Amino acid sequence: MSNPLFHTVYKTTILETEEFYIGVHTTKDINDSYMGSGVNITKALSQYPASSFKKDILFVFNDRESAFKKEKELVNKKTIKNVKCLNICIGGDRVIDFKWTFNLLKEEALKFESVRDWREQSVSSYVIATRKNWVKILSTHMEREWRWWTKEEVIIAAKDFSSVKDWKEGCNGSYQQAHKMGIYDSILKSSNMEGGRPKISNEDIIQEAKKYSNTLDYKKNSPYYNRAGNREIYQECVAHMTKGTSWGEGRFKFSDEEVLEEAKNYETTKDFRKSPHYHLIKSRGLYHQAVKHMRKLKGSERLKVLLPDEEIIREAKNYESVKLYRKNSPHYHKCRSRGIYYECTAHMSRAVVRLKPDVELLFSACGS
């Protein structure tokens, strides 16, 4: 008795990229090494080692028609659009190599005006043409999905749109070519499109900055303020301006000598953190120079400054029993380590040890 045939719908996954391919395979051994014969999966099999692939048998059928029907459900238009999908056409279409000769493919291709229509309406012939690298030869009469844009064509295409957003969505090819050709700014100026943001030179940014008398107005009102900072020409732009009064501009008010003199008022580095110039000193790289005379708190002294004993004792008064204090207080272990446990728990009730009922009966019986 011959072995039965299994008509399987399988899914091959590339573990490194998570790309997948779904297909139909008829075999006598359901666990054979077949991974797929599609154009993209074949390329992937030659690029990656065998250990990079995982094959899952999704469905097993008694006839091939049912397998193709299920493949058509799984590999639809939505699946094809998934960037991880390696299938190039909708499932369920039987592709038989020997049916499509070059002359038959040529006759089939002449029925369509574009490659997209050919790919969507005659899947099997397009797949065979792709496998045999005949698509370019057979599609010479078809309208291309891409085109070469000349400068004049880009300018004419841009005139059909009133805003940059509409131009980008309606004719993205001419929009991208305008950037590549360097004519994007000139098109915006001549057409007065809405939403355009033409490129601007450093000289124009510096010239625009001369409208402002102080840095605060420049920051609030200039559309090129951030660009000046990104292009490292900020100092040139604000050279003629008076300093502003915002927090960000306030850092220019004080010299290095003034902030270092103010730091001498603090005895410890902890107190120095409260200084209004603490972050300014760190940003200027003067921190070590500013804290030379200061005392650094260490060990238990630092802990007591961070959380004094009085604070721990005050917090302990929120608990009525030692059991609740031990369970809920974040300072329970600190009070023990600092030797103030009895001061913290003086007002608390102690836990009463309760014996189990049968143990109490035993003791009472012994006593009688």
Throw out a few tags for this protein.
single chain; 368 residues; flat; three-stranded antiparallel beta sheet; 6 domains; 7% strand; mainly alpha
Number of domains: 6
Question: Gyration radius, to the nearest Å?
Answer: 40 Å
> Can you list the strand order of the major beta sheet?
2-1-3
Average residue-wise pLDDT: 79
Shape: flat
Distance between the termini: 91 Å
Order of helices and strands: EEHEHHHHHHHHHHHHHHHHHHHHHHHHH
User: What's the tally of helices?
Assistant: 26
- Which bin fits the share of residues in helices? 40-55%
Question: What is the percentage of strand-forming residues?
Answer: 5-15%
Structural class by SSE content: mainly alpha
Describe the structure.
The chain has 368 residues and is mainly alpha-helical. It has six domains: 6-81; 97-138, no CATH class; 151-191, no CATH class; 202-250, no CATH class; 256-290, no CATH class; 307-368, no CATH class. It has helices spanning 39-47, 64-74, 77-81, 102-109, 115-121, 123-131, 135-138, 151-158, 164-170, 172-181, 184-191, 202-209, 215-221, 225-230, 234-237, 247-250, 256-263, 269-272, 278-283, 287-290, 299-306, 309-316, 322-328, 332-337, 341-345, 357-367; strands spanning 6-14, 20-27, 53-61. The longest helix is centred in the N-terminal third of the chain and has 11 residues, at 64-74.
